[in-house]
Write a structure and sequence with these properties.
CATH architecture of the largest domain: 3-Layer(bba) Sandwich
Strand content: 15-25%
Strand order of the largest sheet: 5-2-1-9-20-19
Distance between the termini: 36 Å
CATH superfamily of the largest domain: FAD/NAD(P)-binding domain
CATH class of the largest domain: Alpha Beta
Number of strands: 23
CATH topology of the largest domain: FAD/NAD(P)-binding domain
Structural class: alpha/beta
Low-confidence stretches: 1-21
Mean pLDDT: 88
Number of domains: 2
């Protein structure tokens, strides 16, 4: 579907350039160079920050929201441990001192790499000299899009607040009803997907109802809330060692989480999960964390996809094959590191990719003024991923950390998790707010964000 824009899309008053008029990365026809960054996540934001106040570049950051979201802590918003502003910050505020960076709230819907132009949902047309596509991923239902209407995802602040509203509202309804069957359904939460998000959610929910809410209700016992974690494979946290997976299983079961491994979801209907073995489970809250897929934009680039999830395998410098002015970053990338292992879709990897793309662009701008300007593409450095490890929290004082040969579980892993996540938060206010919130919750077991804000119909 490459080349989806035609002459009718030239609403900006400029006729689309012919493919022959395309400005290549090796050209010196126009300064400053237009750099278009699609996505204000870790990769896109890092690239914009590295190019800030460099007069050789005119940078535009486009995102469907107006904020940068710290997704690793999104589950804490969903479980009433943190408020939305604690893990999000305005992109304009972050980049306000970058005089060459413009932030636009729009959603890119069409890509035409042949004419170096994209189109937004607003109808605006954006042309570029360099494009950095780092638009992230969305929830995948494995070819069953109808399940979305009956489940809750966790990819945005809106979805996190929706989970919190649903679970807390169900507890309030359970307090009201006299029907035991209805109460049982309202106090059942099914989480599909035993990866880090599912494990962290289930641990946080059991912490919430067993410790934080235990004295808040009079007609129900919140410890009766059933949190059921469903995983299709034979163990949780498949990216971790078997020993760490077993630790996570034991810890969650000690917290009261019901674990069902080797359990495949066959169908999801309204407040009911149907399993491949023929059994069903009624639940008023069904949370889907079982898979992700790339933004549909990757299918418009006219290059082979790396997997069924729509990710792309770029060249070694992160550029797109056949389009050296287009770069791919973040969760859209399917690329092996120097050891042959796939680079995980984690924040440190995305930050490194954004930093690398900015480095490539700066180096090309420098080489254009030297005798090597015609060899710029050949001189591009390879992306080198530095593996900082992966981690997941399981509850208070419990986590797992895997970094090379270092495998941690328990309290030390929990402290490492706290330190790393505070370190990656953007902005001093966010770091301080989260740190104080965690300290208060640790001491008092009482989160402050249990207010239910009803959604306007």
């Amino acid at each position: 579907m490459a080349g989806v824009l035609d002459d009718r899309d030239a609403g900006a008053g400029v006729s689309p350039p012919s493919p022959q008029a395309r400005i290549s990365p090796g050209s010196s026809k126009r300064w400053p160079r237009k750099v278009l960054i699609v996505g204000g996540g870790f990769a896109g934001l890092e690239c914009a920050r590295r190019l800030s106040n460099d007069r050789r570049f005119e940078v535009t950051v486009i995102d469907r929201t107006n904020h940068h979201l710290f997704q690793p802590l999104l589950y804490q918003v969903a479980t009433a441990s943190l408020a939305a502003p604690d893990i999000a910050r305005s992109l304009r505020q972050i980049l306000m001192k970058a005089s060459n960076v413009t932030v636009l709230m729009d959603e890119v819907t069409d890509l035409s790499p042949e004419i170096q132009r994209v189109k937004g949902k607003s109808g605006q047309i954006y042309d570029y000299d360099y494009l950095f596509l780092a638009a992230g991923v969305q929830t995948s239902f494995f070819g069953r899009p109808e399940w979305e209407a009956h489940t809750l995802g966790l990819k945005s602040l809106t979805e996190a607040q929706g989970i919190r509203r649903c679970v807390l509202s169900n507890l309030e309804k359970a307090e009201l009803t006299d029907c035991e069957d209805e109460r049982r359904r309202l106090m059942t939460v099914v989480i599909a997907g035993g990866g880090p998000t599912g494990v962290e959610l289930s641990g946080a929910f059991t912490d919430l109802v067993h410790r934080s809410l235990r004295d808040d209700f009079r007609r129900i016992d919140t410890s009766d809330l059933r949190v059921i974690l469903v995983e299709g494979s034979n163990r949780l946290l498949g990216a971790y060692s078997e020993k760490q997976s077993a630790y996570a299983l034991r810890r969650l079961e000690a917290l009261g989480v019901e674990i069902r491994t080797d359990t495949l979801v066959a169908d999801v209907t309204e407040q009911c999960v149907h399993f491949a073995d023929g059994s069903t489970l009624e639940a008023a809250a069904i949370i889907w964390t079982a898979g992700t897929e790339a933004t549909p934009l990757t299918r418009q680039l006219g290059v082979p996809l790396a997997d069924r999830a729509g990710r792309l395998t770029p060249e070694a410098d992160l550029s797109l094959a056949g389009f050296p002015e287009v770069f791919i970053g973040g969760d859209l990338v399917s690329l092996a590191d120097s050891k042959g292992d796939l680079i995980p879709g984690v924040a440190p990897a995305a930050v490194q990719m954004g930093r690398h793309v900015a480095k490539v662009l700066k180096e090309e701008a420098r080489l254009e003024r030297t005798r090597f300007k015609d060899q710029k593409l050949e001189l591009r450095p390879r992306f080198q991923y530095f593996d900082k490890g992966i981690m997941a929290i399981i509850g208070k004082n419990a986590a797992v950390v895997s970094s090379g040969k270092l495998k941690l579980t328990g309290f030390l892993a929990w402290l490492a998790w706290l330190f790393i996540h505070i370190l990656f938060l953007v902005g001093f206010r966010n770091k301080l707010s989260v740190l104080l919130g965690w300290a208060f919750a640790y001491a008092r077991n009482t989160p402050d964000t249990r207010i239910i804000v009803q959604r306007q119909e």
